[in-house]
Task: structure prediction
Amino acid sequence: MLVSIMVAIGLILLYALWEKGGKTMIISNIIQITVQGLSEIEKEKLMKLKSPEIIKTMEAIKEETKRSRPSIIGEVSIPLVDLGGMTFVEVRVNQSQPYLFELDTGANYTAVSAEVALKEGLIIISDEMRESYWGRSFYIGRAKELKIGDAKIENEIVGIINHKISAKLFGLIPIFSYKGSLGLNTLKHFLITIDYPSSRLILQPKDSKIQADKRTIITPFELKDNLILIKTFINGQGPYQFLFDTGSTGETILIEKDLAEKLGFREGGPHTKPAQLRSL
Result:
């Protein structure tokens, strides 16, 4: 098992290194990301997790999030894992073995794969829903417990993804499968520090004091619908609201085409180049 994980990590990191060298297409032909729907048998098994009491509206789901009970003592430091430019952290679901979840502040809710939901006995509390941006379907579910290091959240609301995402070698040999994403509805229970140089996620109680010195830049942000929005200036113009999204990969900042044109960025111009967007 450990050997398989190390091979997967090595290949995905190799993908990232080759991409920086401008040979993305060669590596992409070796490692392919695939998205598949669930089989009929898997769908039937998932339906057995469905609660008799189904929530019908997003307003009711927001009320359900108030039942979550976070608990933490002192400071909790958890290692971060970089897989091809994506940042992952270990999460336990209902006292399970640790799963690698993507650290994704751009996700309103923590998401769990159907595989993990079935294995760990999560409860589905909604009918099938459809995400507006990608058009993929999901269910709202409840985990009895999520654990990140020694930080714990009981009765946490999660999205249960109605499809499978995996990386395959030559499109045939599975080397990595998506287990879940740690979203902002879970992270906002704590004061969080993402220490990229040290590869650590640090969680503290909400009422903890921020450790800042003269080198620290403190920037206010708006928390709206479990998303972090930051006022940003580009080339002296703005402010524009930007989403703070740790789940977005690559070396670029994404902006709308209309705004890019307004700021003088033209396709094929001296300050633009083709970019490839990768995300789980």
User: Anything to note?
Assistant: Residues 109 and 239 are 27 Å apart (CA to CA). The mean pLDDT is 82. The longest helix spans residues 2-20. The first strand starts at residue 31 and ends at 37.
